[in-house]
Automatic annotation (TrEMBL):
One of its GO terms (cellular component) is plasma membrane. Keywords: ATP-binding, Kinase, Nucleotide-binding, Serine/threonine-protein kinase, Transferase. This is non-specific serine/threonine protein kinase. Gene3D superfamilies: Transferase(Phosphotransferase) domain 1. It catalyses: L-threonyl-[protein] + ATP = O-phospho-L-threonyl-[protein] + ADP + H(+); L-seryl-[protein] + ATP = O-phospho-L-seryl-[protein] + ADP + H(+).
Length: 110
């Protein structure tokens, strides 16, 4: 997973202090002063960024990864409100020769 280089995927070699600093700078999503930063255009930009991150994981990365736990809590925003997909604890590698993947177990967290 350390080889992932997608723009909207959190690089696993990033320092924890950098992630914590970015989260602290952004603040809690319920903070009314921060909520004002999320107009509809910015929200659409975030959604598109998440989609680009998933496209990278599914089709463009060398590993072809299925995240299996994508939720708001696993998307971090940097200082410019660019989304970074994180927490690959339940991720699975997609078989390169296949076009579909099946799983028998329900996966994810709340």
């Amino acid at each position: 997973l350390q080889s992932l280089r997608g723009v909207n995927v959190l690089h696993l070699h990033d320092h924890v202090s950098y992630v914590i600093k970015n989260l602290c700078d952004f603040g809690h999503e319920l903070d009314p002063t921060k909520r004002q930063q999320l107009d509809w255009g910015k929200r659409l930009q975030i959604i598109n960024g998440i989609g680009r991150g998933l496209l990278y994981l599914h089709e463009d990365s060398q590993l072809m990864i299925i995240h299996r736990d994508l939720k708001a809590g696993n998307v971090l925003l940097d200082e410019e409100m660019n989304p970074k997909i994180s927490d690959f604890g339940l991720a699975k590698l997609f078989q390169v020769e296949g076009t579909h993947a099946t799983t028998e177990n329900v996966a994810g967290t709340r």
